[in-house]
Amino acid sequence: IERLLGSGAIRRHQVSVPxxxxxRSAVVVAIEHNQVEVMKILLNYLPYExxxxxxxxxxxxxxxxxxxxxxxxxxxxxxxxxxxxxxxDTVDAYD
Length: 95
What we know:
Elements: H1 2-7, H2 26-32, H3 36-42, H4 51-60, H5 64-72, H6 91-94
């Protein structure tokens, strides 16, 4: 996975795009199968706007390690060292 992402064979936005017959993205499959090492790689390529949905899925599936990994990722945190305020960011998209 790391080699494919690093070489550009898979683009950054494709990590969270649903694919296949079941319409699940690579990051959703990794969360559902509790693949912590894969999530460490995918989070570096995941767009910021998809972090919230991934976190909610990890919490729903009671995957504490992955939820903690998401919350501690630098992309999820604000520049001031606090967690990102997802309510400020495109609230209409979540309605």
